[in-house]
Structure formats: structure tokens, C-alpha cells
Amino acid sequence: MTLSFDFPGGIYPPERKVRSSQASLQRAPLPERVSLPLRQHSGRPAVACVSPGDSVQVGSLIAKRNGLISAHVHASISGTVTHISGNDIQIESDRQDTWHTLAPLNWRDTDAGTLLARLDESGVVGLGGAGFPTPVKARVIARHAIDTLIVNAAECEPYITADDITLQRYPDDVLEGAQLIASLCGAEQIIIGIEDNKPEAIAALTQAVGRSQPVSVTLTVIPTRYPSGSEKLLIKTLLNRTVPSQGLPADVGALCHNPGTLLAALNAVRAGQPLVERIVTLTGDAIARPGNYWVRLGTSIETLLTHAGLDTDRLSSVIQGGPMMGETLDTLKRPVVKTTNCLIAATHAELPSGPQEAPCIRCGACESVCPVQLLPQQLHWYARAQEDDKLERYHLFDCIECGACSYVCPSHIPLVEDYREAKSRLRYQQIETAKAEHAKHRFEFRQARLAREEAEKQARRHARLAQTKPSISNNRADAAAHPAPSTMPSANPQADLRSLRIAQSAAKAAVRKAEKVLAREAQQAPHESHEDLETQLATARENLKVADLQLAQARENAQISTEDSP
Amino acid sequence: MSMLHASHVNDAPSAGTTAPPTASLMRWVIVATLPGIIAMTYCFGLGVLSNIVLAAAFGVLLESGVLYLRKHPIVPALNDSSALLTGVLLGASLPPASPWWLIGVGMIAAVVIAKQLYGGLGHNPFNPAMVGYALLLVSFPTYMTLWAPPQPLISDTLWPQIMGALPIADIDTLSGATPLDAFKQKAQGLSAYQFWASGTLADGTLEAWRFISLAWLAGGVLLLFKRIISWHIPAALLGSLLIMATLFYMADADEFASPVFHLLTGATLFGAFFIATDPVSAATSRRGKLLYGVGIGVLIIVIRNLGGYPDAVAFAVLLMNLCVPLIDLYTVPRPVGHSKGTAGAPR
Ligand code: SF4
Ligand code: SF4
Fold first, then answer.
1. Which option is the CATH number for A116-273: 2.40.10.270, 3.40.50.11540, 1.10.10.60, 3.40.630.40?
2. d(CA A564, CA A55)
3. CA–centroid distance, residue A404 to ligand 1 (Å)
4. Which pLDDT belongs to residue A479?
5. Pick from A188, A202, A471, B27: CA 20 to 30 A from residue A168's CA?
6. Cβ(A325)–Cβ(A353) under 8 Å?
7. A345 Cα to the center of ligand 1, angstroms
8. Each residue of A48-63: b (16+ CB within 10 Å) or e?
9. Modified residue FMN phosphoryl threonine is at which positions (chain B) (predicted)?
10. Which of A237, A342, A163 is nearest to A10 (CA)?
11. CB contact (8 A) between residue B347 and residue A327
């Protein structure tokens, strides 16, 4: 155990974890049908690649990643695709539960590229909350020096016990997953941060830590205090490093993953099993059999809660996620998705609706619990008054929306709601002002695509001609008749080749940069859309293709000319 | 969205350690004024209670009236008891058995002008009770500076006094001065020792004021204990007040009263715990609160020692209310993750 450091503020809400953590982990029954949303992750929705009537097995790819920040979606039951809409794919079960898995890999003797591709193919995303694609996170850090992989097992929100149970049941597998990710990002140590209210998981980990190798694993038990599991605060607590505002953990050499994600990553590699199920905490006083369940993605929440003994008479609201940061569901017809960690079927008595909001009396209670040391009362004031410059001056965008301020506010002001509203208003304004810019980027993309298509055509024709009439004169005439940018063999083919090589590496660098910018932005604001950056990345990729083709062609030309004139 | 709230849970490890909801917050402050009010009544008679009851009644009536005119819902606003509290605080600041119309004028200034015209609870830049007090002090100095010496619970003139039927000359003969006032008015060249020996103040006056001050302190401790106020403002205020008073005292012990005298007479402790801590009109960040408290402490001594008014809590508080926007602007804490260069200070 290592030292832990302090963060400011924080609150001690009731834990209410016992009901779900006492029951042992079970499997929810196989659903009759599933509805799999195309967007269960941050970034762009996946694109369906099956049609109604297709029969699928568990693990069949049914929707493909679209763009950099996106993830594959796989069938979670075997059966027939019945319906595809713009938002989801529905599958009717054949009750066979036949699986389609990928080849098992031993990560210790597989190269990083293959492993990353595997995580990508398996649709693995962060299971803790935002659903950020895991392979992208692993690659982002390739450009930063990462020394520490943090296993975020704090699970500080009330009610949720999914990580707790995961660690109790699969401590060795989670650590093996951590070793896998650590090897991918080059971390030299693994630290598990866990709140001291999970003695069983701590005991299981204490045993497992010694067995885990090659990277050394440290178990750090931290005091229970909300929101200790917030990424930046956990890094402060465990490493005493402060992630800069607008920064990423990678900026201070750290990377955080939650236990469920590590387990999913390991399963994808070791068992070749795509992400088709996850552990979900079902709890709340309105269900009779609370506990943690292995649930196939796409299972309807209603079916699931009914299985756990839902008492609809006592039910007042269903919350997805925790009571501090989760959302109240307006319908139970929604499916479980990759990011569903907890469902709370609450009675009125356990989560009463607040009294009417009273005016802010500037008592400062909110300020004293804010873990980021903001002034929530001032943010509230300026958010309501829509004084946008003041909001930025008071660092609205540093707010992690933890809800500690709302929890203590004696006037029962829904502060976080104010902040979310203000944030989306400000973001909308930014998007509006950037519209012209976006149009320009879309135009550039179109140009790049046309250039690429032209270059491809050129290459095909070139290949055809080279096959039939491999004579230099014809080749020249042809190239002259269809000029493509800088493909004309010049007087000095060697110099030409060199400049094309430079152009190609510049295009490569541009792609890398666009990827980096996009991945970074997407990680900072996982719930936002980053269309413009995806467009810019696509443009860079098209340009790279053009440069590749031109270079290849010029190389051939150079060869031909050297053969022709020895 | 946070669906849990501290006031709804009784199974939290922290249950009972967070501040109560706003409505009961104000009621707690009223409860905490009781020791002070009882002590004052004991020393200065029922005139103290009549002040408070009248002021509180005016507060509730005026607030309802304005809300009605502004077409705002009345019950929720009255439920927060803030008008009642303003009445209690202004009532406790006035000389005992003040005439009803004086109280009424003060409460109009406090509730109607200082609070509702600015938009109601949470929007008033100035402490309402102190606005009322300052207006009265400036407009009716005779009534405001006459403070009867300690007297039995019920005096003969109580009723006519309250009804405003007693001629001012009679009040004059009945009343003395507060110790602060008396010390201030002492003849030039009279040493402090000679002043105390001269018997200008009626017997027991000083003791009565000390007793009352300690009663306010007791109420203040209750507020701190219930987490209704934070320690920042009272500590900064009293600390700076003592330091300033000591400096003056060291400079000229005959001209300026001792730090202990400043601490235990007049409205120092009442002001430190009940007036300066009004969250709405105080600075809001913790650092801001410290600055705000220091400012009030310093101003109290400067005005008392150098200015024209015997007690200075009201003016000091109002002056610092005026500085709050500035203080708030320059005490934005530096959020976690911001480097020293990009401090919270405005750009
Ligand atoms: S806790 Fe609520 S009432 Fe108190 S200052 Fe903050 S927002 Fe205002
Ligand atoms: S929600 Fe934002 S302002 Fe409120 S406590 Fe959390 S970080 Fe601070």
C-alpha cells in the first residue's frame, strides 16, 4: 500500500451498496430479443452492416465503426435480424446461443498492432461511464510517455457495486487485463485505487497482486469520499499529480481504466470474445432481488428489472448510473448498453423529490464541497443570468458535474442542471460561430476525395497500360493526356521522387496530428460530437492516399526509365 | 443529475453535519438570537422585546405587501423567515422602547427598499437590517442615540414611549448614553482613568453591556456549531478589530479605549456573528470572507476612534457590502488543474 494524497472538498453521501453487494453474481436469463443501439460509445454511431432477415450468432459483427472515435457493435444473441433503423438493430433470438468468436490470442507473445486491432474488432469501450473506445485510448497514450496505469476501482457513487463484484469474482483476470493494457501503453507500474468500503474486493486483490506480473502492481486503499473516483481526483490522490485544466491524464503520464473494461479487454484477446455482455448492478428498494447480473447488451431494462422482482406499485423512478451523476429514465423500454453500469429502481421514500427551489443565499456550502475549487454559487448566478464571459472567467468548463454542490445546497437548487444547460448553450454558440469553418473543412474533404479518386483512376489506367504496352513513349503520351498533379515524369525523376516522398511523409504526419487532436478532444468531452474533427481527419487520410498512390506511380516510372535507359 | 440531497438522507455518514435547508437556516439564526435578546431584556426592560416584536411584525407585513404588489407567491417567501429575521435584528439594534413609527420607517427602509426593490432574498447587495438602522441614525439621531440606563423590566414610561407619545425632552431625561458614546464624548484631556472614576455612566451600565455581549457570543457559538455560519467572517472581524484597537490603544491610552472595551461594548459581538455573517450581502468565497471580515473589523475601530459616530458596526458593514463585488472578483479561487499563472483572478 502506498501513500494517498488529499483533494479539496467532497461529500459523504449514504452508500446504500449493501443490498446489491450481498447477493452473489448471477446471469440474467437470455433475452428473447435485443435492441442494440448503433451508438453505445462516445463519438460517431456505428454503421449497420447486416440486413433484416440475416441470421447472426453471438459475436457476429452487425455494425461497423465509423471514423476514429467510434466502435463496432456485435450481436449479443444468436438469431435473426428483424429490424434496422437509424438508431438501432433488433435481433430475435433462436434460443440456440451459438457463438462466433475470434481466434484466442496469447497477449504475451502477440505484437501490439495485432492486440490493438483485436480490441478494435471486439468493440471494447470504457465500461465506466463515457464509453470511450479503448483502442483509441491505448493509442493516444502512445504519443505520451505513460508510466502508470491506474485501475479505477474507487466506485464512489452510492448504490453501484458492479466493479466491487467484478473484483471479488475475477481479481486475477482484471489484473491480467491491466497487465495487457500496461504492456500496450508501456506503463511501468499499475496502481489500483479502491475505496476502503470494499473489504472483500480488497482482500481478493491483496491475494492477486502478488501473482500478477511482469509489471509491479500496488494496491492503494483510499478513504471513502465522493467523488474520489473522478479520474483527475484519483490521479491526485494516488500519484499527487495534478492533471492540468483542459488536460488529459496522459499529460501527467497516467492512464485510468475501470475493472470492467480491463476484464472485457482481456476476454477480447484471450477468449476472442467481442463485447456482448457486461455486469450490471440492479438495485433500489423497488426490486425484490437486488444484485449484480451478467447481462447481454440490448436486453430491455424492463425485462431485466422484472426478472429482479420489480414492484411497479412502489416504483417512483428508475435511474441509470448512480444517483449523483446518473440520469432518470423516462421509459423502461430502453436497452442495456455498453455503458450501463447500474440501474436503480427507487421508491419515493429512498429518493424523494426535492422541495421547491429557494433563492441562493450565497451561504458558500457548495463552495466548501467542490472538489475542483470552483465557486458554484457564482456559476449559478451567471448561468441563470446568461453572462457567458463571466461563466468562463469562473471556469465553468472545469466543472466535473459531480453534483456535490447540489447535494449540500440548502436552497435545493439543481446547480448541475444549470451548469449543463450553460455548457451546452456555450458549446452551441461555438459550433454556430464555427459553421463557416466547418463548411470549409467539408469542401476541403470533397476536394481531397476527388483528387484521390482521380489518382486511383490514374493508377489503374497506368497499370493497364503498363501491362499491355510497356513502352515508355506511350506511357508518356498517356500521362500527358491525363495530367494528374505532379505525376508527370519530369526531366529529373530522382528529384521528383524525393519531393513526392517528402509530400507523403508530410501527409502521414498530418494524419497523425489530426488523429491526435481528435482523440484528445473526444477524451476531454466524450459526450460531445466531434464531426468537424472527424472530417478533418478524413481529409488528411484522403490526402495521404493520394500521396501514396503518386509516390508508388513515380517509383514505377523511375524504374521503367532506368530499365529503358541503362 | 444529483438525485440525492443531504437534507433527505438520514443514513449518510455525514447526516447532521451539513447546514439545514434555507428556510430552517433562517429560523436557526432567529433561535440563536434568543440568548442576546433575553439578556438585553433582562438589563433594559420590556422595551427591547417591544422593539423586536414590532419590527418583526412590520417585516412580515411589509414583505407580504410588496410580494403581493410584485405578484410573487407570498407563502414560500414568508416561509424562509428572512423578513422575520431582519425584523429581529433591526429590533435588537434600536434603543429600547423605540416609538412604533421609528421602527416602521426603519423596516420600510430595510425590507422594501434594501431587499424587495433589489429583487428579494438573495439579490440584496446591502444588509437590510443595517440599511434600516443607518437610515434611522442619519434621519433621527436624537431617538437613535438615547439609550436608557439599565432598568427594571417594566418602566412607567414604557407604553407612552412605544406609542411615541412621550416628548423628546422627557426621553432625554430618562436616557443616558451607551458606554461607547459616553467615552467618545468625554471631555478633552480627561484621562481614561478619570473618566471611569467620574461616574458619567450609571452604575452597572458597563456590566450590563458586557453581559449582553457574552450572550450574543453564546448565540454565535451555536450558529458555528450548527454550521449555519462559517468561522471565517467572525474570526477575521474580531481578530482585525482587536489588532486595530490595540494599535490605537498603544498609541494613546487616554484618548482611545482599550481593545477589551471595544470587544465587549457596543454591537461588536452582535455584529460579528449576526450582521456581518449575513451570507447574501457578504463576500462569497472563503478567501473573500476573510478579507470582508478584516475590512469590517478595521472600519469599526477607525470609525469609532476617528469618525463622528459612537458605534460603527452598521456603517462598517454597509461600506464593506459596497466592496463585495470587488472582493468577489479578486478572490476567485484557483481551480484544481490551473497553474499559478492562470489564477482565478479576472482576465
Ligand atoms: S449552497 Fe446553494 S444557497 Fe448556498 S451559496 Fe451555494 S448555491 Fe447558494
Ligand atoms: S458539480 Fe461542478 S461546481 Fe458542483 S461541486 Fe462538482 S465540480 Fe464543483
1. 3.40.50.11540
2. 56
3. 11
4. 46
5. A188
6. no
7. 29
8. bebeeebebbbbbbbb
9. 178
10. A237
11. no
